[in-house]
Structure formats: structure tokens, C-alpha cells
Amino acid sequence: MPWQRLVYANDSQSQSSPASVLRGKGRRLNRTARRGALVAASAIAVWQAAAAAGAVNAFLLPSPLRVAEAALDLLGDGTLPLHVGISLGRVLAGFGFATLLAVPLAILLCLRPRLIRPVLPLIDLFRHIPPLAMIPLFILWLGIGETQKVAVILLAAFFPVFLATQGGISQVDRRLLEVAQVAGMTEAAQVWRILLPAALPSILVGLRLGFGYSWRALAGAELVAASSGLGWLIVNAEQLARSDIVLAGVLVIGMLGLILDALGTRLIVRLAPWAQAEITRAHA
Amino acid sequence: MLELRGVVRRYALSGRSIIALDGIDLSLAAGSFTAVVGRSGCGKTTLLRLIARLEQPDAGTLHWDGPTPPRAGYVFQEPRLMPWLSVARNVALTAAEADVADALAAVGLAGFADALPAQLSGGMAQRVAVARALAQRTGLILMDEPFGALDAFTRSQLQDDLVRLWQERQPAILFVTHDIEEACRLAERVIVLEAGRLVAEHRIDLPHPRDALDPEVQAARAAVLAALGQRPARSSSPSQHGVPACVP
Fold it and tell me: DSSP states of B161-214 as a string?
């Protein structure tokens, strides 16, 4: 039957299936990860050699082995898991609240610009204020408890998520919405079934950036008026002149950020495979 | 089922007013197949968009049978599939789940229900768009140069499928194309737009399937070309048999 011939001819002519493209990208990422690990291992080896040769001050820059020993001690006595858990809880809370605020607000901005346009200058003003500069005010307003720390993280994560959502929705191909309009779909259904999925790649990139910003703001939030968390662990170690613990804490923050970002990216690609190109671009 | 009276549509362009449709009078009967031809920018797409209520006329009225305007299935120039949805979910987006399988089978894509749009060829994606319009089970299907971007072989296949589906289901079809041969192969009536005005209307009372090289189809083509002020580039013994010109 000519129709069947047409279908299979097209199939055979297709240069690569989406699965093979993904496999190809996966192989490329693995190769990149291997090269990255090699560079990191080389840097650590140079650092260790310099420390062993006495080329660097052992107090200012303890050797990798000493840092690893300090990290293992903290891991063994449960200190590190405790503070990692506390910090992670704060990041998730701040990031979660930021997402709950930023995504609906951005959608509202796009759907009802007249309603939200008057508050845009205020939003822009806060966008340019570093979250850490708000810590003194937050302490005055919210005290020195968890709320203040979560607020700092929320402020850090809010703008990347808000701007990415706003940008994503405003760039949705309006021709897709016309398909729904002709079919008589309600505005709410258009938002839920067309606008949000179409903007999802941008929103996910914003969430990824927002999570990174949250993680960065965490240390700042815990440096002041805190008695727990990785930021506090670092400050406390600095006061005790334990530069090995300071470095261990800093590296743990970096590595956790790296791992969570990689896990988040994998989750995003699994949930929204059509967003892969955008996610990869954001990574680059 | 649908009637347009004195419909006018203007656009503002760089401070100037451009008239896209200038007093269009047109009626569409239930189960009819009407093709709209004309040069680029003559108002063909605007006409469809007004009927689909994606735009409002600046003057004139639209009348329809029944208390509410008819819902239309719309096949756009490009497939406009949602890339995050499978073929079946794309069709179900604007139709009842129960009609999805039938519509996909009707366009020969029953085996591709779970495929994503990115996995389809251009012709297959356009078939999905046709299935989406069919699945809505509306009495009116608007098609805006739906096969314009396809290769000749796929286009011919889809034209045959469309005629078969129209004969089976009998929706009213308003089919915009700039390919006069396509219009003459498919439609029972061809209307000619020129600078936003309806300048000619031809009935083509020939049975389907029609061969593009059939002298009577060629004659219809010549008549439509004449209405557009052009001489046919390829025609064999033009005859007016079965092609009475109606409304200049």
C-alpha cells in the first residue's frame, strides 16, 4: 500500500532517532565528566605535592589529606551529616517558597500585565539588592531564627525563577494557543495545558539557576546569627583556627551543589525530554 | 450553515490602514467542500481566522444556524503540534478520548499514537493535524494551505485521504490554497479572492477521485486562472463543461 511505503520510507530515511541522539549526548557528557574528574585529580595532586614540599603555609592551606581527614572525622562523629541536613532543609524551604511565589506571580504578570505592571519597579529594585545585604534588615524584622535564613535563600532564588518563568511564558509560540482557542478551551485550560508545558523548559532552567543561587546564599545566611548548618560550621572552624575544617566545609558545599545540580538536571531531562536542548544550553 | 455578509477586516501597518477583506459575502452549506484561491496577501487566511473567531470583523456580520457559533476544526499551514505530547495526546487535546483512535486510523497513523511530534516526518505531522481537526467531530473544518509545505507525493496522498474522509463524514470544508490545481481536484466550489474581494466563484460538478490531467479538471483550472487574470501554463482543450461561472 503506497501509504505504508511512505511511512516506512520516511522512517528509514530519518538520520537518527531521539533515543540515539540522547545516547550520543549521554556518551559526550560521560566523557566530559571523566575529563573534569581528571583535571580535578591533577589539581589535588599538585596541591598535595606543594603541601608535602612545604611550598605553602600548612595553616593557610592545609594539605588535601589533612582536609580529607578532617572531613572523615566530621563524618564519623555525625557532625557533618547533621549540619548538611540542616543546611539542606533551609535550602529546600527557601527554594520551595521562592518557587511557589515566583512561578504564579510570573504567570499572572504575563496574563494580566495591567494588574502587575505597577509593582514591577519594586520587583526590579529588589532584584538589584544582593540577598546578603538584606540580612541585617531580616534579622530586625524576622529575628535570628530559621525564618530569617529561609528568607535570605528565598530572596536569592526568587529572581532567577521569576525571570525565567516570565521569559518562558512570553516566548511561548502564540500559534499553539490558537489551536486551543479555536477548540474553545477556557483560559485556565490554556494556561495549564498549553502555556505551562510550552514554557516548562525555560521554567526548569530558572529552577536550576534558582537552586544554585539558593545554595550560594545558604553559606551567607548561616554565617550571621546561626548556631548550625554548614555556614556556621565554617565560621566556627575559622574561630577555632581549624583551616582544615573550613576547607572541608567549603568543599562539601561545592560538592553537594554539584551533585544536586546533576541530579536535578537528570530529573528535568527525564520529566521533560523535549527540554533537553535548553537545559544543555544552560549548562554550557 | 454559515453566512458572511459584507465582512470587512482592516489591519494597521506603520500607521496605514490595510484592507485584508473588503465586503465579503459568502455562504457555506453543511457538507460542502469549498476551496478559496488567490494570490498571497489577498485575505484567504484572514477569512478563515474570522470564521474561526480568532479575529473579529471591523464591519459586516457572520450568521450561523443554531443559537451558538459552530465550533470549527482548524488545520493550520503548519502542524502546530505540542512537542511535549504524544500523537494521541495531541489529538485528544481538543477532542474526546473516544474519538482519538478513529481519527488517527482515518489518517493512517493508528500505529503512531505513542510517537512524539519530533519523531514524525513533515507529512505525518500534518496528518496528525488533520486527525486533530477530524476528531473534534465538528460540522465545519477550516484548512489553511495544509499541504503547502509538503512534497508532491505526500500532498497527493493527503489530498486523496481528505476527499475520502469528507465523503465519509460530510463536514463542511473551507480549504484555502494558492494551488489552483489542488483546489480543482478537491472542491465542489472554488471561490477566487483578489485584494480582499470575492471576484469569482466556480462550481466543479465532477465526481471524485479526480485526475489533475482530466480535461474537465484542466478546464476548471483554466477558468479559475482566467478569473485571476492569468493564462493557464498547462492545459489540454479547455472546456467550460461542468464549470459554469457563477458570481463574478
Answer: HHHHHHHHH--EEEEE-S-HHHHHHH-SEEEEEETTEEEEEEE---PSS--TTS
* Angstrom distance (rounded) from CA B74 to CA A177: 13
**Cα–Cα distance for residue pair A177/A170, rounded to 1 Å:** 12
> Pairing between strand B172-176 and B189-194?
unpaired
Instruction: Please report where in the chains the cell 536550576 appears, as a residue.
Output: A208
For residue B183, give the nearest of B165, B153, B163 by alpha carbon.
B163
- State how far the alpha carbon of A20 is from the alpha carbons of A17, B85, B243, in Å: 5, 20, 54
Q: How far is A13 from chain B (nearest CA, A)?
A: 10
Confidence of residue B49 (pLDDT cuts 50, 70, 90): very high
How many Cα atoms within 13 Å fall on the side-chain side of residue B166?
24
Helix A64-76 and helix A79-111, axial crossing angle in degrees, nearest 10: 90
The answer to whether residue A177 neighbours chain B at the CB level (below 8 Å) is no
d(CA B49, CA B51): 5
Q: Does A182 touch chain B (CB under 8 A)?
A: yes
pLDDT tens figures, B218-245:
888 888 888 877 655 544 333 333 333 3
Asked if residue B209 has a cis previous peptide bond (ω within 30° of 0), the answer is yes
**Counting beta carbons within 10 angstroms of the beta carbon of residue A114, is it exposed (0 to 12), middle (13 to 18) or buried (19 or more)?**
exposed
Using the 8-state DSSP alphabet, how is residue B245 labeled? B
pLDDT in tens, B56-109: 999 999 998 887 877 889 999 999 999 999 999 999 998 888 889 988 988 888
Residue listed under C-alpha cell 496522498: B157
CB atoms inside a 10 Å sphere around CB B212:
14
Helices (H) and strands (E) in chain A, counts: 14, 0
- Residues of A whose CB is below 8 A from B118: 18, 274
Bridge partners (DSSP) of residue B36 are: B176, B191
Mutation for testing the B interface, residue in A3, A8, A203 having most B CBs under 10 Å: A3
Rounded to two decimals, the pTM is: 0.75
| Architecture of the domain whose range is A16-41+84-283 | Orthogonal Bundle (1.10)
- Sequence-distant (≥ 6) Cβ neighbours of residue B101 within 8 angstroms: B88, B110, B113
The 3-class SS string of B10-66 reads EEEECCEEEEEEEEEEEEECCCCEEEEEECCCCCHHHHHHHHCCCCCCCEEEEEECC
Question: In this complex, which of B54, B82, B95 lies closest to A197 when CB atoms are compared?
Answer: B82
